[in-house]
Amino acid sequence: MENDTILVINSGSSSIKYKLMNPETGEEIARGIVEQIGEARSQIKHVYHDVEETMVRSVRDHLEGMAVVEELFEKIGPSLQESHVVGVGHRIVQGGPYFSGPALIDKNVYALIEELCPLGPLHNPAHLKGIDAAKRILPKVPHVAVFDTAFFNHLPEKAYTYALKRSVAEKYRIRRYGAHGTSHQYVSHRVRSILGTDDLRQIVLHLGNGASASAIVRHHPIDTSMGLTPLEGLVMGGRTGDIDPATVFHLYREGKMSIDEIDELFNRQSGMKGLTGHNDMREIWKLIEAGDEQAEMAMEIYLHRLLKYVGAYWALLGGLDALTFTAGVGENDPGVRWELCRSLAFMGVKIDRELNEEHFTREAIISTPDSSVKVLVVPTNEELAIAQQVYSVVKL
Ligand code: ADP
Questions:
Q1: Where substrate is bound, by residue (predicted)?
Q2: Number of neighbours of residue 26 by Cβ within 10 angstroms
């Protein structure tokens, strides 16, 4: 129905982000975040229409966090009980081999998400806390899991299989699962709609703090850069992306680092942050302008990896029709778009310098009419994509 709403929840280890969405119109009705859960001074923000309420208070755990969220909906609006919430969508990072679409969270699905915790140790335990907490405040509506891995569940076997001893890979379920799938699916769908055809070979570059690339033919991905976990692939804000796995042996043997320390180093202290001290591209461009050579090299490393993936996917696709930028960097960083496309000029890629300068809150084609490939910027909207998927499940 027209006024049905979906509450979308993204629960991390120390935060809960939420949005109340209308899945049919795409309207964002309210949103907010509870951060630094478990610390003495948790930061809380709730936005409804023009009202933005922020506060700092101690929030012990996710249960208390969701109780605060419920209070804010009552106090600032709109009341959850009166908002016609027909479903709650939970973003889940690791769906393992089990899920290729959204799933109603019953006992069985809950147990599978739990079983997958070893494959998503940084995320799945936090998602379960989010589910428990949200079920407390909305016990009567269906809760649905939307998996970051689902879109890549049917990758070709040759793309998802690592050349690792088969028995070991099978025992520990080691394969490429991918991540950011909801975004790649949503953006590639928008591109088909903008260009008015399904018959496309696409590369989607989701460049945010986390970053991933995917190669898609018609409706199906044929490869993606994130792997068993979101660590593999492109250079990211704080993650290494591709690195020789033997580095782990070396740091363990020679550096006497523990596995947890190496995990922290690769997942949080590396990437652009490890190279420059900053994970935000805006800071890195400022350093480059000020003549900082390390920042300049970090940008070259970032672009070099990006170009390598685009070239590899172009070959896998056997040609390219559309190249699309999305997420924080993809939507807002004309420098990254310009430099990458300049390196692809030898393949006939050409973008319009002026159009490219925009910070995109809208979908746009930024290639020139004579470009060999359409180049687009499509703002991702993972919450809307989740809300739509949840609606498709609960509407039945
Ligand atoms: P997340 O992976 O956390 O969802 P986002 O997609 O929101 O990340 O992207 C956040 C990143 O986007 C920032 O760390 C920053 O590098 C980049 N970014 C945001 N705005 C700009 C901008 N105006 N110019 C360049 N980069 C930007």
A1: 91
A2: 12
Residue 31 is labelled as binding a ligand:
no
What residues does ligand 1 touch, defined as CB less than 6 Å away? Answer: 208-210, 237, 279-282, 327-329, 332-333, 359
Cβ pair 46, 16 in contact under 8 A: no
Question: DSSP labels for 164-175?
Answer: S-HHHHHHTT-S
Q: Do the Cβ atoms of 327 and 208 come closer than 8 Å?
A: yes
Cα 285 to ligand 1 centre (Å)? 13
* Tens-digit pLDDT profile for residues 326-335: 999 999 999 9
pLDDT at 329: 97
> Ligand 1 mean position to 167 CA, how many Å?
40
Q: Is the pTM of this model over 0.90?
A: yes
d(CA 125, CA 131): 10
Among the listed residues 66, 57, 63, the one whose alpha carbon sits nearest the alpha carbon of residue 36? 57
CA of 327 to the centre of ligand 1 (A): 7
| Residue 393 tokens, joined | 């499940």
317 is in an annotated binding site: no
Query: Any catalytic annotation for residue 148?
Result: yes
Q: Best substitution site from 35, 91, 332 to test ligand 1's pocket, by max atoms within 8 Å of Cβ?
A: 332
- The residue written with tokens 């302008």 in the block is 289
Q: Do 242 and 206 contact (CB within 8 A), yes or no?
A: no
Q: Considering only CA atoms, which residue is closest to atom 7 of ligand 1? A: 328
CB 86 within 8 A of CB 5: yes
From the CA of 335, give the closest atom in ligand 1.
25
The reported pLDDT for the residue numbered 358 is 84
**pLDDT for the residue 361:** 87
Tell me the pLDDT tens digit for each residue of 24-83.
999 999 999 999 999 889 999 999 999 999 999 999 999 999 999 999 999 999 999 999
Is 209 annotated in a binding site? The answer is yes
- Residue 286 assigned ligand-binding role: no
349/25 Cα distance (integer angstroms): 35
